[in-house]
Amino acid sequence: MKFNLASVFETVADAVPDRIILSYDGDGFTYAQMDAMTTQVAHLMAAHGIGRDDKVALYLKNSVEHVAALLGMLKIGAVPVNINYRYTAPELEYIFTNSDSAAVAVELPEHQQTLAGLLGKLPELRVIFVIGETTGELAAAAAEHGIALVDFADAKDQSAERDFPERTGEELYIIYTGGTTGYPKGVVWHHDDFFRKPISGGNPYGPPRESYEELAREVTNFPSIAFLIAAPLMHGAASYSLFTFLSLGGRLILEREFDAATIVGNIERDRPQTILIVGDAMGLPLVEELERAAGEVDMSSIFMIASGGAIWSKSVRDRYTAINPDWVLRDNFGASESGNDGEIELDENGNLKVPANPRMMVVDERFEQITTPHEVGHIARVGNIPQGYYKDPEKTARTFPTMADGTRISVLGDMGYVDDDGGIVFLGRGSQCINTGGEKVYAEEVESILRGHPAIADVLVVPVPDPKYGQQVAAVVEIRAEQPGPTTAELQEFCRQSLAGYKVPRTVVVVDEVRRTPAGKADYRWAKATAEATV
Predict the structure, then answer these.
(1) Residues contacting 389, CB < 8 A, separation 6+
(2) Percentage of the chain with pLDDT > 70?
(3) DSSP string covering 303-339
(4) Domains of the chain (ranges plus CATH)?
(5) What is the pTM of this model?
């Protein structure tokens, strides 16, 4: 059988209707309440012409309405389009048009203002669902371009009956992912593949669920886990986590936006057991607040801090351990194009490594599997993978090739090798490989070591020209405010303890802030230009 995400939610809601599904700003909503609310949202969207395969852009910060809109549209087979609200107008225009969005859900006045200026450039847009008060600017622009404006609150007047068309599990779910270069790409998943891979078949702690009946039975026996999503819901890692813990009948704790002081201040009220962050960008400010609050805030409810979507440095992880050595720290390895690939670990040699599992392999340039230990190739994901990139057959063919035996795989450019024990060592993106005198250096490998230095807040490693070796390794670093700046020689000596000499940065450039894209990804173009300006 094939799973549909809306049916998964409804199955859990029927099995544990009185459990709390969502805690937001001190309020709690049960599964039964959320099911009724999202059913009404589904009918509201349908009443305004939104149906199966229509794309609905969620131009929203975290909120109850964000969750309701997401789950509601899934009930009628509409397709969510995640919008990074940090994007500029040209970037937003690209995503709205590339995704063929028929509807947009929007809330904040500044977002309405930006959207109003784009309406004349969005030919597929038919309706805007507004949460809260509509600005005059948006109302005027919508009237000018013949686009319907709908008050999201009108959903309360709709039916709460589940009279929806039959679902197949082949409905679509799109995640737009921001890369280090170019515009974001829309990764297209079938619901069934999304359920089985990104959300681990509804059970990340054991065998996947194989039927709705099994899901209903097991969720009643599984204790409710309180899971705080510190990341914005427009981030792929957050949406994966939302559906994973929803499938377990868990309680999701949502903050309006990431603010470390607010999160720590609400720990005693919300009693989270697991907290999701996205790498050091969230992990560092959160641990600093936890350190300040140690002994003042009751943190006894917490048993796990999990990171996904970005590398989580050892130095920051060690600070969490210093607060409470019993906390479980989990660094999830995955991507929008592959889902949940497992836990990434730092082995005794300082390598980033994923334990052996049937969902990953290493392949050569012909997409044949490499089994010889330490032979470098492309890391490939196997099994339930996306259908491809929305409206981009060329990139789809390149990223999701088919092996000689007919197996479709996902190859994202990550390089690595199979270790002696069958685990896969992650070296870094091939596109960020530095060739210095014929030796290959992977940027992420050097970055992971430098992040271990107590004075380094953030770092990007890039190639710069070298008259003798062609390229040399350069590091663009941001120094922590409270730390004295280390010299280039000191950083080089620190690296030599873990890296071969040719991998040690010969150039170190200190900047006020390491620049990243609005999606939080490394801006290697900026880093390369910054480094080259100094040599």
Answers:
(1) 185, 186, 187, 188, 395, 396, 399
(2) 97
(3) -EEEE-SS---HHHHHHHHHH-TTSEEEEEEEETTTE
(4) 30-199 (3.40.50.12780), 344-384+394-429 (2.30.38.10), 437-532 (3.30.300.30)
(5) 0.85
